[in-house]
Amino acid sequence: MLDFMNPSTLSETMSRTYPMLMHPARITRIREEAYAIATYELAFEDESVRLSYHFQPGQFNMLYLPGIGEAPISLSSDPAQPGVMGHTIRYAGNVTQAIGRLQVGDVIGVRGPYGQPWPIDQLRGQDVCIVTGGIGLAPLRPVIYAILQQRQDFGRVFLLYGARTPADMLYTDEFEAWEKRDIRVLQTVDRAAPTWKGHVGVVPMLFYHIRLDPRKTVVLTCGPEIMMHFVIYEALARRIPKERIFVSLERNMKCGIGLCGHCQLGPTFVCKDGPVYPYAAIEPFFAVEDF
Ligand SMILES: Cc1cc2nc3c(=O)[nH]c(=O)nc-3n(C[C@H](O)[C@H](O)[C@H](O)COP(=O)(O)OP(=O)(O)OC[C@H]3O[C@@H](n4cnc5c(N)ncnc54)[C@H](O)[C@@H]3O)c2cc1C
Ligand code: FES
Fold first, then answer.
1. 0.90 surpassed by pTM
2. How close are the terminal C-alpha atoms of the chain, in Å?
3. How remote is the CA of residue 201 from the centroid of ligand 1, in Å?
4. Cis-peptide into 24, omega within 30 deg
5. Minimal CA–CA distance to 159: which of 136, 192, 125?
6. How far apart are CA 151 and CA 267, in angstroms?
7. Domains of the chain with CATH codes
8. Model confidence over 112-150: pLDDT tens digits?
9. Ligand 2: which atom is nearest the Cα of residue 259?
10. Is 281 helix (H, G, I), strand (E, B) or coil?
11. Ligand nearest to the CA of 99
């Protein structure tokens, strides 16, 4: 029985009935992460919306600026604290560059969360190998937070992470805390600086520095598609089944809820059936470029 006098139940019902409903959210914090990349923390203006909003690792919001447009942006914050929505944004085009000109206290439109999440429950009892490059770590950071919440439920956890230069790496101030909680972090860059202590080379090469058990490892990957191709190649070479490799894809989006067809991938829509897919489900379409 729905309690319509309860504001939080009411806004949950409204969001289900009107899935494209936009809500104003205020920027509460901006944190520079790397060149032309920053994390924006947003809080819904309406308390009932704020209280009823929940997301799962891997989901995204549509961020809207009046007169400019909308862009899908992953949630990069802790799903256990849904009142603070973190979005790590690279200033790429119209919407994201305009967001880059905003200040703490400014308001933008937010609708979501949308999309299929990373399969956290399927990871329980398994070794988890997270492989990512550049801003691809953003939609995977909530996975790391979810694992840290119940670290004992998961086996060995690896983060294989690469960026162009050390200065392009995200969230580096958190790596030490993650390692203390038994997450093994391996870093690589294309171009090293004199003080660099990690590896130099492409991300998939990091597979050669760890030993995975194919019977109980799940691989999660997000980043440039060319990187993910080689990640999948290395994972398959280690006899990790296709069903245990998960990828997060990006495609041009408009509606974000499976109505307009802009994000079609084979018989699926990335906004609704993805962005996270088991590789086995999309293997034939993975090489098809967006247009
Ligand atoms: C599910 C999903 C999750 C995503 N999560 C994130 C995320 O967490 N963080 C994030 O930053 N992005 C994320 N993206 C990507 C983001 O949505 C796109 O980059 C989006 O197009 C940005 O909107 P825009 O209006 O700023 O850029 P658009 O105007 O749409 O630009 C699109 C493309 O054109 C290029 N472009 C546009 N203008 C210029 C210019 N002046 N010079 C050179 N190139 C230009 C951009 O590089 C970009 O590739 C995600 C996408 C999807 C589908
Ligand atoms: S963005 Fe409209 S169907 Fe996916």
1. yes
2. 46
3. 26
4. no
5. 136
6. 37
7. 7-114 (2.40.30.10), 120-248 (3.40.50.80)
8. 999 999 999 999 999 999 999 999 999 999 999 999 999
9. 3
10. helix
11. 1
